[in-house]
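Lab notes, practical 5.
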Amino acid sequence: MTRADDRPSRRTLLGAASAAVITAGCSTTTNRPTPATAAAAVPPTGKHQAGITTPQTAQPHLLAVIADLTPPAVAVVRRLLAELGETIVALTTGTAPRLLGLDPGDLTVTVGIGPRLVRLAGRTLPGTTDLPPFAHEEIPPAARGGDVLLQLCATDPLVLSVAAAALLETTGLRERWRQSAHRGPAVKVTDNLTAPRNQLGFIDGIVGPHTDPEQSLNLWLDEPRAAGGTIAVLRRMELDLPRFAGLSTDEQEAVMGRHRDTGVPLSGGVVADGPDLGAKTPDGRYLVPAGAHARRAHAAVVGVRMMLRRSYSIDDPAPGLLFVSFQNDLRTFTATLTHMQNGDALLPFTKTTASGTFLILPGFDHQHPLGSTLF
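Output from the prediction step:
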């Protein structure tokens, strides 16, 4: 580990971020070849952490690393988060030697803390509650919960493992579990929004808080110490692809509540529309079946706000889905999944094998280190 007196100061690293971003992530190192297709840099500082709503179209590759911190003490957490912030700026602006010459491109690193660490900061803060157990779970203890979430996203998958290693080495965190994942082909939903296809063949993540007013209401926390943060839920799920593929296209669409090819709700309209849950056939049947996922998980039906989903496909340890959702109230997720357990036609095709919830910290800059409003 680099000695503290050998490292550039936090102010120096964070102050350099804006200049590095202006040059679109170009390294200060001379003679480094930059690929013609290198993705533009994403600012690591600001009101919100990167990797949630920026970039607007999520990068195609993700690595989630869940780790534990020992001992869990306020001073230890404060130092850990400050070091993470410094390292994130160095990595995303291309100034970290640990990148080994790789161009970070559009690398983003999003940091969250688990309920145990949130309770250290204050028992009335959002994010102090662990996820309860749900049906269709087979989660070993080592894959449930965790103290720290590092969500790394990039166009170049090679940079993710290198950056993750640098973050773990800098902080001394003990890795609990990790998951690599990727986004399917993007499908245009509106002029400003795309969504990927998942391994079931359906467009994933169409409905959500995509505008600034919607995000203010549904996504961002307004509690003073956590303002600008949000609550994340991660769920790794295996999918029973052979059994789902054995259904006819009509049966698959009845499970999901949308047309597979276009993403349009079975009630009609365009792909960006939410389903019309009251629409019926002339003989009185609901166009969106009672057990359809689009109905059972609908925020208005459940009685909660919307969640922002950035779901990814996975191949290992089994074909499936890494479900990532952001919301400003954990009940948005827990109430939705509880409602789904009572008749959602999609759930029997899933098995959750890892799970956790994390308070995503507010954004940071050279005057406000990562996590400083809490610790």
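Observations recorded by the TA: The radius of gyration is 21 Å. Confidence is low (pLDDT under 50) at residues 1-7, 16-30.
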